[in-house]
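TEACHING EXERCISE
Course module: macromolecular assemblies
Task: Read the component lines below, then compare them to the predicted structure of the full complex.
Student: A.B.
Group: 4
Components provided:
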Amino acid sequence: MIEWDDKYSVGISVIDEEHKEFINIINMAIVTKEHNDNPEEIREVLHKMVKYALTHFATEETYMIKFNFSGCQLHRNEHLDFADKAVANINKVINGDYQVANEILEYLKQWLLNHIQGTDRKYIDCFNENGLYNAGLNKDLQIFRFKSYPP
Ligand code: FEO
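Instructor-supplied answer key:
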């Protein structure tokens, strides 16, 4: 299980709230796997996790584009790499390889924590300079959906 800690905060409430929800879903997946070997439930929670990840990535990328963040493409490449690997692994579960679920969860957990504490911190100055602090979501912002992500 992962517990939220201030060391994961990027100091921007809209992003922190999404990271907290991401952690909640990963914890839900860990509990599902530990206490229930029902393949359908495991598949469902993994699917939910990937769907949420894509929503969160779209939030960050929308701000990066809006604020002309110079590291946008590199950051986006990490998101795309995560999406590709997560979908490929989940397909293994869907195809009946349920033993791989533990491996997937560990991978997703480590990826998220490393990404939050490394790559995500790089946009903090840019977002802050453009007025995004702990004030919350800019309601005028349209969240893009990128066609290259899997559905
Ligand atoms: Fe918070 Fe770049 O994912």
